[in-house]
Amino acid sequence: MNSITRKIVFIDIDGTLVDDDGSIPISAQEACKQARKNGHLLYLCTGRSKAEIYDSIWEIGFDGLIGAGGGYVEYGSDVLYHKKVTAEDVRHMVDFFNEHGIDFYLESNSALYASSNLQAHLERRIYGDVENDPVAREKKETKPHPFIAGLTYGEADLYKDDVNKVCFLESPIIPFERIKQEFEGKFEVIQCTVPVFGEGSGELMIPGIHKAIAIADLLEHLGMSREDTLAIGDGMNDAEMLEFCAVGIAMGNAKPGLKAIADDVTASVEEDGLYHSFVKHGLIED
């Protein structure tokens, strides 16, 4: 495929490539494989850190990764950059969340480190009451969520030196706005894009980082043009990415605000939205 027709495609993970249960539709897998076979470049562009990119995702085949919402950029086996939270700010985060009983996990490229009560909280939100509800217990046993299995539990020292960002679950006591106020000027505090974490859940990110900045840096490094870019996502953390790329596509399950700024709206994850968008925009044939 010549350089005029080759595209570089930036794909969000949660709610775009992967459904709420952590599964990747067969249609999306085949669309990605066929697009690369046709000569296009495919980059994951996600809020997830590298430790959250499971083998089942990598095995589909991608040319690189923009992770941690734009704080980490990898192309092939090379790293363009990796921006980390300072030790002082990590300590502040950990101490604040532990003091107020807020369940959280630290994202680094090596692992996802869970706070002491996170596992039980996540299981309640994802499966239900596993102690008393047989249906919830069966769901946990027969369909374990890869995210829960992918976390590192029981880590005594959470003052890590390679943290990309932190995610916290909704607290019944401390509202999101109070958390945002606590870290004002230190972090970009955004609401989490994973619905099961709760409306008051969120992410603390290094300021001045988002997906579009990382895409621009990668394009410059690769010597590729913005005119050859497509992006597809579902959450408001994809807004800058969709606005920056030549074609911005919102999933059918996307937030209304994202659909409003998108160039195109495809079907939902469950309705093979990624596959249909790839066909419509000429990356693959139906």
UniProtKB/TrEMBL annotation:
The keyword Manganese does not apply. One of its GO terms (molecular function) is magnesium ion binding. Keywords: Hydrolase. It comes from Paenibacillus silvae. This is Cof-type HAD-IIB family hydrolase. One of its GO terms (cellular component) is cytosol. InterPro entries: Cof (IPR000150), HAD-like_sf (IPR036412), HAD_sf (IPR023214).
